[in-house]
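Proteins fold reproducibly. Next comes an illustrative record:
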Amino acid sequence: MEVAGARERAKIVKAVVDKAVQQNFNSHANVQLQGSTGKHTNTAKSDVDLFVRMDPNLPHVARKERAIVAACIEHGLRDQHIDPADAKVRIAKTIIQVRPAAAASGIPKTDIVFERCKGVSKPPDEPNRGMPTLAAQAVRHVKGLGAVGGYSNLPSPAAAHHLERYAVLKHDELRCQHGHGKDDMTGRDGFSRLVPAMLAGIAGNQPVTKQQEAALKAAGVHGNPEYDRVAARELKNMSLKR
C-alpha cells in the first residue's frame, strides 16, 4: 500500500473516532492525529496514533467508558463499509486498539490514547513541530530504506523524533551555511539536495555538527554499521540516477 493510501485510510479511521468521541463527550474532548502520520513522515507500514484530548474536569475514562467508545467505533467502521472481521476493535488496559486482520492490509494499526489537557475546545493542528514539508518528505524516504527491517524499525518513537530533528538541522544547514534560498529547498531540487546530505552524514561521508551528531546518536543511527551500509548504498543509487 502506498504512503498516500495509508494516510487516507488513517483519515477514515480518525473520522470514525472523531464521531465516536463527540457522541460520548460532546465538546469536552477532541481527537488529535499524532506520531509519524500526523507529521507526514510515515511509511506504508507506520502505525496510527490518535490522542483523545480530554477536558481536565472530566472524570477518569474507565474501561466501561472505553467500551462504549469502542462500540461506537465498531459501528462507525461498518458505516464506512469496513467489515468487523477486517478490523478488530480491542479494549486494552488503558487504550483502545484497532487491529487489522491479516487479509485486510489497508486497515491501519491504530492506538487510541485518552489524555487530560487544557484548551480542548480549540481543535489542535497536526503536531509537525515546525518541520518543513521537505524535511518531512526526506525523513519518510530515509525511513523507507531497508536496514534491519528498515529505518522505520527504529528503536522507539523517540528515536524517530530524533531522526526528524536531524532532518530539520540538515535542512537549516543547507539553507544557512550553503546559501540555498527558500526556492532552492522545495520540490525535486530541494529533495535531491537534502536526502543525499542526510545520508552522507549518516554514512560518515560528510562531517556533521555536534547537534546533528547528538540527534543521530539519540536515534540509534550514528555509528550503526547496518544503517551506514544502507545509507552508502542509497547514495550510490541516487548518484547513478542523475
